[in-house]
Design a protein that fits this description.
Chain lengths: 267, 267, 267
Amino acid sequence: MPAEGEEMRISDIAAPTGVPQQAAGLLERLRAQGPRVHCITNAVAQNFTANVLLAAGCVPSMTLAADEIADFVASADALLVNLGTLDPERRQATETAVAVATGRGIPWVLDPVFVDRSPGRAAFAHTLLARRPSVLRLNHAEFAALSGSEPDGEGLAAFARAHRCTVALSGKADLIGDGLRLAQVENGHPLMARVTAMGCAGSAMLAGCLAVGDDAVEAGAAALLMLGVAGEVAAENAAGPGSFASGILDALYALDAPTLVARARCA
Amino acid sequence: MPAEGEEMRISDIAAPTGVPQQAAGLLERLRAQGPRVHCITNAVAQNFTANVLLAAGCVPSMTLAADEIADFVASADALLVNLGTLDPERRQATETAVAVATGRGIPWVLDPVFVDRSPGRAAFAHTLLARRPSVLRLNHAEFAALSGSEPDGEGLAAFARAHRCTVALSGKADLIGDGLRLAQVENGHPLMARVTAMGCAGSAMLAGCLAVGDDAVEAGAAALLMLGVAGEVAAENAAGPGSFASGILDALYALDAPTLVARARCA
Amino acid sequence: MPAEGEEMRISDIAAPTGVPQQAAGLLERLRAQGPRVHCITNAVAQNFTANVLLAAGCVPSMTLAADEIADFVASADALLVNLGTLDPERRQATETAVAVATGRGIPWVLDPVFVDRSPGRAAFAHTLLARRPSVLRLNHAEFAALSGSEPDGEGLAAFARAHRCTVALSGKADLIGDGLRLAQVENGHPLMARVTAMGCAGSAMLAGCLAVGDDAVEAGAAALLMLGVAGEVAAENAAGPGSFASGILDALYALDAPTLVARARCA
């Protein structure tokens, strides 16, 4: 590891080992502990996100009301902030929720949905990044818009170091890194892009994994691995995106540690 | 039945007879009459709730807008007030809707979701209880938070008498009572707790049953029986919560009086 | 075609030819071009509408926030305005969105949901009609409330001419006309009325077809034909409205031009 201020090269970044085994451990803890995950998310995604969390063993809550969100976040084990449908109410809810989470050391995930389509949303995402989310999860177009860098391992590492946060970049292969380590998860299925809120639900699962884990890179890789493996299992019996959407909930619910480890394609 | 003011004991409370047969009658009336049920409910639950109502034969509407909710409630046959996602808009919509419903004698159900997680929500639930909902439907944690009593038959009966309303308490066995009678429904399946908005949808069905029935205890027991039996049927073919969620809609749609009576486990 | 001002008779109105072939062409363009469809729609319908659009090959977006909707509409290929759950936020979002769409020549669809249940909603629908939507899509009760005419071919033609817009009237047989032409689509299945937001999703597909086509009557007939055929395919394997709702997404995703043409029942 280079000294502070020294330029880091991609070759210095280590791939963490044992990602599938760590994910298996986190999966068992999700089921045993049932962490509460409070979600500020868009109305399109709320129902599917709640069902994904329930299938994985978490307890979701979703209120956005100004006079009660502090109570919900304070009694939650993790927080998701998703910027989809960014109305004034959600903006205010987000400010309050992030203040409570950071004040109490509750881990939180920022998902800057569609930040590439709206300058106002990009500006708000930057102010939230300065509040240091535990993990920033986004796709290639969103990463490019937010960072101005290429959505690859090198771009991710530089951005993670500059913002001192862990980044989970979903794509054909998912990349999860904090600037020192870089995990890669190659599981998943193209039908995942044909179901609305799949990415949002992945961010919520990531929050659930943060609630039961100690390490943001491990939690990020674990969540995307669980969802990717469940997606592959679901695709084997799906006739299209409709049966796939319910199938991935079934697969997540039935997912066990041996299946996770056997199917993992990580680096 | 004891004289007014006299303490009532649990042994004085009668179990209503014929619950399955009454439920079968209400099911047929739901299909024949297609009652309009206006729902003030959270964004997480809206889609599933509407689909449950449609599967059961009801006609759902869901608007929350201040300048039109009075029209919708006035032309509805029953009203559901669910406190999930309690924002100012829903609070105002609720005030207006309850005023219209009580003024016109339209039955209404109060579902104080997550009242155990938010003091502000508990306070609002108490003001609504004072407006005398036809039925209060809630789970054990919510009942304990609202009543300060044990979530059992005795606690329910005392609370129902004090607030002069019918209470439907869902749990491993559902209890429905008004302080004089206490019905018990043991149907259902654990997967029902793994699908978001299942409880909310049960409250909406309860509103539908109130619209076509005369008795709140009968309507409450009927709605929870219909949903519980549909859940058992759905679970027989479900691979997990995803296929279960669509299966319970199929089962509700196909539910008939003989199946309801044959499968009922009531006391 | 009669001279302007002259009364037109229903016998003067031509049935367009080649509707199935045109629909097949539009379906292929949807898949090839992946048009962006921005939807202002109710919270009940958002998730299902997004999934229908994704299954058909479109890219949905759904934000309603005042300070970003202009950016989303400006970068969209078509706009849907659905009046379900008409709160002040959606009203303002609608004003902005329609201004951007008409200013840039982006086609837009107006779906005046439940206009028969709320006078305020009917009044707002009339102000929007004056802004000349590309297509007005609605059901019989909504058409009767808005037009004061019979929901048939003659009533539709008169209304379309008076308002200079194309009308897509869904019912047992769907009618699509602009006052000079009148297409009829007889595909579909009764279970479509048992899934919430099916009509809203049809309006969103119609917006998608407008994005890749040149003619509003063709686009309207194509969208309702695609959804109707997908509904028939889905019904063959559905056990009820739950499996039907996911089945229609599968069927839309798998729909190809030969199936569309072979199953079309148009006039």
